[in-house]
Amino acid sequence: MEIPRKQSKGKAKAALAKIKTQLEFYFSDSNLWKDKFLQQEISKSPDRYVPVHIIASFKRIKDLCTDPGLILHAIRESDKLELSPDGVHLRGVTPMAPQKNMDEHTVYVEQQ
């Protein structure tokens, strides 16, 4: 059974949006502060690039898509990610912000 063209296009757009959201999350400060593996991969490149094939191997990305072309399309659609000139690496547009020491921003209140 073939999916009608409009419905198929709508599903592709939804899949693209989910992939883009997941990729942007991976390169967000809130994730990078905790994700030691991705920090290691980023540190291997002086330009902070990570090979797309590594990100494509992540379970959540594989659950969303197995088409490398769709992953590349999601990266190109993002304003938070960029592809390397050769098109095989990606990075976040802004470098990870230094992690703040939360103890400096925490107030301890003792109840009497």
Please provide a written account of the structure.
This protein has helices at 5-26, 29-32, 36-43, 52-56, 59-64, 68-77, and strands at residues 50-51, 81-83, 89-92. The radius of gyration is 18 Å and the shape is globular. Strand 2 and strand 3 (89-92) form a beta hairpin. Mean pLDDT is 86; it is low at 1-5. It is 49% helix and 8% strand. The protein has a three-stranded antiparallel beta sheet with strand order 1-3-2. It has 112 residues and is mainly alpha-helical. The chain has six helices and three strands; from the N terminus they run αααβαααββ.
Attribute tags:
112 residues; mainly alpha; 6 helices; disordered N terminus
Average residue pLDDT: 86
Order of helices and strands: HHHEHHHEE
Unreliable segments of 5+ consecutive residues = 1-5
Tally of separate helices: 6
Percent in helix: 40-55%
Q: Strand content of the residues, in percent?
A: 5-15%
Spatial separation of the terminal alpha carbons: 70 Å
Shape: globular
Structural class: mainly alpha
Largest sheet: 3 strands, antiparallel
Number of strands: 3
Radius of gyration: 18 Å
The largest sheet has its strands arranged as 1-3-2
Layout of SSEs?
Blueprint: H1 5-26, H2 29-32, H3 36-43, E1 50-51, H4 52-56, H5 59-64, H6 68-77, E2 81-83, E3 89-92
Antiparallel strand pairs: 1-3, 2-3
Helix pairs in contact: 1-6
Write a short abstract of this structure:
With 112 residues, this protein is mostly helical. Helix content is 49%, strand content 8%.
